Amino acid sequence: MTLNDKENNKKTNKWIITKDIIPSPTLTFLIPVLSIFLAFLIFGFFLLLSGYSPLRVFSIMWTNSYGSFYALSETIVKTVPLLICALGISLSFRMKLWNIGAEGQFHAGALGATWAAINYPHLPAYVLLPFMFTAGFFAGGLWALLAAIPRAYFQVNETISTLMLNYVAILLLNYFVYGPWRDPEGFNFPLTVRFSDSAILPTIFDTRIHSGILIGLFFAVIIFVVFQYTKWGYSIKVIGESPSAARYAGMNIAKTIILVMFVGGGLAGVAGMAEVSGLAHRLQPGISPGYGYTAIIIAWLARLNPFAIVVVSFLFGALQVGSFAIQTTGLPAAAISLLHGMILFFILGGEIFTYYRRIPLEPTSNSNIENEVN
């Protein structure tokens, strides 16, 4: 074997990673499923090292989430805010806008809806509930604009700004609950007055399931239609895939960024409205155990598909219910956050197998180089 042959063989062992234009449908389905399996496997190993029986913990989670009609109804109750927040996040993620602020937008929406409820309790339900819905939507949308406008016109990183605004919104809610809106007859507890009956979302059957679930399903259908059959949905996808091509086609990128962030934040705000109106019936600190952050995992796991988001939200609603049930074993409810993090870790790690592929580099002979030079 000559020296040139050895050099060519070395070159054939080189390869590059390139983005796959059309991802494999099989991998697109299998990677999320495998991510969940691996996350539960590692979480079970963690439980074992901590002295807990993984089978017992998982059995308790299953029984309290799906084991009875009441358990199933509680899972659906937890599904509502997760579903609506994840749908809002999926809008911006489609455009490659990394909106990490659904948690803050959720709190802003809860504030907006509560303002309407405590200031206009005399209004009938058919007026007050749409008013609260509108107030929650605009409060969440305007909160998202605080990050969207700097991103659209000054290229400010929206990941950092939306994340920081979460803490501002949470502290703002605490200010109102501990201060101006505190119930004077609440025995000094940080709670607002209870909403009037006309400000409470109707429930379904004899359960705590409220009509917020119907709002979430309605939004899922609307988002599917928008992305499949409207010009605006098409422009969002084009801008997300190739801003330069969108700019060449005459699309207004700044305007689309603002509109997408506003609508996405508005949906998270509606989730806040549904939570205070349909479940809590008043505003209080800790109204969210991290719905906005969990919604990020749901959106990624569902591949931003609105109907898949419905299914994944239901699964994570069960984890939310199970997180309280496992406290009977001595585990803190926060242990589920570890499981959430593991799922997200494996999902992001699996992206390279779904959307990228390895291509070997072809060896370039000396004669070809000489021909190119000539």
Task: Describe this entry's structure for a reader.
The protein has 374 residues and is mostly helical. The chain folds into two domains: 25-52 and 334-357, no CATH class; 68-330, Orthogonal Bundle (ABC transporter involved in vitamin B12 uptake, BtuC). The chain has helices at 3-12, 25-49, 54-66, 69-94, 102-119, 125-154, 158-178, 212-229, 231-241, 243-248, 253-280, 291-301, 306-325, 335-355, 366-373; strands at 15-19, 356-360. It has a two-stranded antiparallel ribbon. Helix 5 crosses helix 11. The protein is globular, with a radius of gyration of 25 Å.
Radius of gyration: 25 Å
For the secondary structure, the number of strands is: 2
Low-confidence stretches: 365-374
Class inferred from helices and paired strands: mainly alpha
Number of helices: 15
Q: Any idea how many domains? A: 2
Alpha-carbon distance between the two ends? 29 Å
Largest sheet: 2 strands, antiparallel
Q: What's the order of the H and E elements?
A: HEHHHHHHHHHHHHHEH
**Outline type:** globular
CATH class of the largest domain: Mainly Alpha
Helix content: over 70%
| CATH architecture identity of the largest domain | Orthogonal Bundle
Work out the strand percent.
under 5%
Question: Mean pLDDT across all residues, rounded?
Answer: 89
Strand order of the largest sheet: 1-2
CATH fold-level topology of the largest domain: ABC transporter involved in vitamin B12 uptake, BtuC
